[in-house]
Amino acid sequence: MIRVNDQKKVKAHIPSVMEDPSAISIAKVYAKAFLGTIQESDKDSAIEEVSEFLHAVTTQFPDFGLILTSHSLNKDERLSLIDRVVAPHASELLTNFL
Question: Is 50 domain-assigned?
Fold first, then answer.
């Protein structure tokens, strides 16, 4: 006989988007696509550049990350923002990837 207290609790809310299996699958697709465009000799520097960008966006400029991922900008506005803000400080590879 199963009692109510014996049942496992089901999480209805995923605490982090990266704990969502579908988000992880999408992230893997993008990571493989990004790495697939880079020559083997350039992979370390490209990965470092992406890491530095993500660190800056998440710690120093979190509002920029929120703007990029929000629905308040359309595709053209988002691309224009990347060209104005990111392109002058990033490689062409990272800029195009974003």
Answer: no
8 burial via Cβ count (<10 Å: 0-12, 13-18, 19+)? exposed
Instruction: For residue 82, give its domain range.
Output: 62-98
Helix H or strand E segment including 43: helix 43-55
Q: How far apart are CA 35 and CA 47, in angstroms?
A: 8
Q: Look at residue 87 and tell me if it is in a domain.
A: yes
Q: What is the pTM of this model?
A: 0.68
**What is the domain count for the chain?**
1
Binning pLDDT at 50, 70 and 90, where does residue 36 land? very high
Contacts of 49 (CB under 8 A, 6+ apart): 90, 91, 93, 94
